[in-house]
Amino acid sequence: MRVYEALHEYALTQTQRQILACLVRNGVKQQDPADWIFMKKVTIAQRLRLSEATVYRCLAALERVGLIEREEQRQTGYTLKVLGRIRLSGQAIRNLGLASVHPSREMVTIERIPDVLDRVPALGLPTLAPVRDVNSPPQQSSSKKQSPGASPFIRVQGKAVPSELAWLVTQNNLSLSGLFHLMKRAKLAGHRLSDVVQVVQDALSKLSGRELFAYLAALLAKRTDFAFVARQRTEEVLIAREAAQNEAARLSRVAELATALRGVSVVRDDGTALSVDEVSVLVIRRDGTSSSATHQRALDSLEEIARLVGEAAERDARRSAEPQPQMSEPRPSPRVFSGGLDTARAILGMRTRRSAATG
What we know:
This protein has 13 helices and 9 strands. It is α+β, with helices and mostly antiparallel strands.
C-alpha cells in the first residue's frame, strides 16, 4: 500500500500507519485530497479495533510530524463535541502522490458537514457549560487559588500531590511526572486539573497509564469551562444528599409514630374515625366510606392522630388538676322535718304520762 511505501522516512509505528491509511481510504476525496475529513475517532477505533486513547495519541503523533492537520474542535450549545475534522497536509499529499496540484489551505472552503451529534448530546458524555469568551483572562492556577474547602496535599513518592488527584498515580498508574505535566498544561489553558478530573471521573476510572494521560491531555485542549461544570456537579451532589437525609428523617419519624400509636383510635370533630394498625392507617368517615394507606404514605395522618391524642391527654390533665367541690350534708325537706317533730312530741308525751302515773 502506498501509505506504507511512501512514508518510510517518518519512522511511523505500525498503528500510526494503519490510522493514516484508514483516513486515506475512508475520508480523502480524490478530486480534492486537501479537503477536510470528517470522521469520528470512535469510528477509527472500531474499524481498527483500537482504543480511542490510542487513536488520539497516534493522531497527535501524525500531526507533530506534519502529515495531518487538525481543526480545533468547536462546541455547539452546551455539548462538548467529540468530532473533529482532519485533513492531509500538503507534504503528505505530495508524498502519497494523491495530486500534483491541490488547493492551498487558505483557498479551501471550510464547510462543516452536519452530523446527528450536532443536534443531540453525545452518549455517555456529561453536559458541559458554554465556552468562555476567548478574551477573558485565564484562571489562576490551583497552586495559587484554592476553592473553599479544598483538600490538602498528600505525599506520593515523596512529592506533594493534591489529594483529589493522588488516585490517578496510586490507582491508575499515571506517572508522577505525567501528573505534574498535566497540571502545568491545565494552568496554561486556564483550567484546574482537579475540575477536569471531577467532571470526567467515571470515564477516567477505566483508563490507566499512557491512555489516561492522553485522554486528559485531549480534554485540556478543549475550551470548556470545567470549573463551572464541577460546581454544578457539586451542587447536584449536595442537593441529592440533602434529599436523602430528608427522606431518612421522614422514614424515621414514620417508624416512631407507627410504633407509638399502634392500636390507637381517635375521632375528629366531623365524626371521622382514624386508627393505626400493624401496617396502615385506617380512615372511616361518618357516611360509612373508608380508606387506608401504609405508614410510609400516611405521615400526615399519623401526625394528626398524635396531635389529637396529645390534646385529649392535656384535657384530662387539666380536669384532674381542677379542685373538686366539697359535698355538704343534705338539708331535710319540710315534710321530713315535720315528721321528725311529731315523733319527738310523741316520745315526750309518753314520758310525761309515765312520770304522772309514777307520782
